Amino acid sequence: MKKNTSLFRKKTVDQILNDANSREHGGLARILGVRDLVSLGIAAIVGAGIFSTIGLASYNGGPAVSLLFIFTAIACVFTALSYAQFASTVPVSGSAYTYAYVAFGELFAWIIGWALILEYAVSNMVVAISWSEYFTSMLKGFGIVLPGWLTMNPVAASESFQKLQSEGVAALTTYEKMAALAFETAPRLGDIPIIFNLPAGLVTLLVTALVYVGIRESRTASNIMVILKVGVVLLVIFAGAFYVKPENWSPFAPNGMKGVLSGVAAVFFAFIGFDSISTTAEECKDPQRDMPKAMIYCLIICTVLYVLITLVLTGMVNYKELKVSDPLAFVFQKNGLDFMAGVISVSSVIAITSALLVYQLGQPRIWMTMSRDGLLWKKFAKIHPKYQTPSFATIVTGLVVGIPALFFKMDFFVDLTSVGTFFAFILVCGGVLYLDHTGISERSKFRVPYVNGNFLVGFGLLAAIAGIIFYGQNVIVEWQGLSVGEIFEHKLLTIIFWITWITLSVMSFKYNFSLLPVMGILTNLYLMTELGASNWFIFVIWLAIGLVIYFSYGYKKSKLAQGE
């Protein structure tokens, strides 16, 4: 057959379904129902976010951070509806990567797949390191103290020791004192201290082994851990409600909207788990019916839990005290309920394990799908004959996550995970507009509810501009004080956001675009503007590496390029 040399060559839905069902790849076991999918979604969403990053978000935004959870959830609902439509149209593993292949072509599919690899890997590194902190803390509660050099990353230990030498012990925080001590007491190989985060590496190894053995075992473990962690969250909400002091909710937004929005990365990190549901499409009994339901159910459940728990936390103690890594246990300790704090510490170890499990489940399936399309080496598509899991891809995932978790700092990764995710979410929402425009939506068993955006998108733009003119004087003053260079350095994404809104207004008027996917694009893009420039710099480097791999291997080996 004739080779296709276009960078934007697309796969049809039938091509993707036929490839997924091809015998040469082996089949995945179809055992997941709606309840299992909701459980996997909750396992990913109610994980490290609610047990750790929620404290930092509350510290920055005060009680009003509960509104940020609602705003972020709304953005996720628009996106989840778009994911649900794609999942009912193309019910295979691969998530946003597969959807981009249908809507935008191979180059965009590769970029999204490469971004999702970063998202899942970085998310799991954060979760593994967070798990290690909780696990070490839990062991201390039982009187077991691991040596510092076995629970610390070498970068933090070295930096803390240097700070001790230059500024003295009085300048160090409690954590930095522990890190400096770990550096001093660590065994040495010549002049090099041996320091690594053993618990983070071990939990990654154990979870990878569970995912390797099978989806059935992973499902059972996930369901048990989800029941436990939702029980703990409900316990915190109902028990904590009796200790809420309404005066702690005043002022509601002490640092204004700027303080609230500074928690975007932490809050959004808590929500990205619903994306992982779509990676298990080929292990669903009825993906076209069950996936849309599961995505919406788990988003509603998790949003309600997040809003309630944020209000309880900020009501039990002053928001200024919540800058801790274990906020749920902390608020009960602060109120003299040490037993409750102990229960939460033990439970949080299990809860974070379930989040790690879901992310480790998702990434190998994206690699497997990319390999099927010829964009990655054939080995990644290999299915284990006994366990019916992508065996090689699962092992590589364990190494990619486990090795950095042994040696790197968590704060290096936290914000970075959101960049690739926002990028994927925007393309999925845009992909639904393509499905509608080309008529492919006619074969979708679930469709995003259609609201004609003909005039509404443009009216929304005019209303936003009017709001800034009449009520956003501080924003106008801030922009007036910036030079052209500073605007491009700090406000480039904001400029892109407004240009995108203008473009979508024109296209909505011309093509009668559906309003909800357009809202998904705009809300995700707006949240992106709140992320730091350094995250984007690292993401661009990652993207450049990916493009080198694509043009040196995937572009030539792609099945579409071979005309297969």
Lay out the secondary structure.
Blueprint: H1 13-20, H2 34-45, H3 48-61, H4 65-89, H5 95-103, H6 106-141, H7 154-167, H8 174-185, E1 188-189, E2 192-193, H9 198-213, H10 215-241, H11 256-261, H12 264-271, H13 274-277, H14 287-316, H15 327-334, H16 338-372, H17 391-407, H18 416-438, H19 456-471, H20 473-480, H21 484-490, H22 492-511, H23 515-528, H24 533-557, H25 559-562
Antiparallel strand pairs: 1-2
Helix pairs in contact: 2-10, 2-14, 2-16, 3-12, 3-14, 4-12, 4-14, 4-18, 4-23, 5-6, 5-18, 6-9, 6-16, 6-17, 6-18, 6-24, 7-8, 9-16, 9-17, 10-14, 10-16, 15-16, 16-17, 18-23, 19-20, 19-22, 22-23
Task: Provide a short characterization of the protein structure.
The protein has helices spanning 13-20, 34-45, 48-61, 65-89, 95-103, 106-141, 154-167, 174-185, 198-213, 215-241, 256-261, 264-271, 274-277, 287-316, 327-334, 338-372, 391-407, 416-438, 456-471, 473-480, 484-490, 492-511, 515-528, 533-557, 559-562, and strands spanning 188-189, 192-193.
Describe the model.
This protein has 564 residues and is mainly alpha-helical. It has two domains: 13-18 and 27-142 and 199-432, Amino acid/polyamine transporter I, CATH 1.20.1740.10; 154-195, no CATH class. It is 71% helix and 1% strand. The protein has a two-stranded antiparallel sheet with strand order 1-2. Helix 5 (95-103) packs antiparallel against helix 6. It is globular. The model has no long low-confidence stretch (mean pLDDT 81).
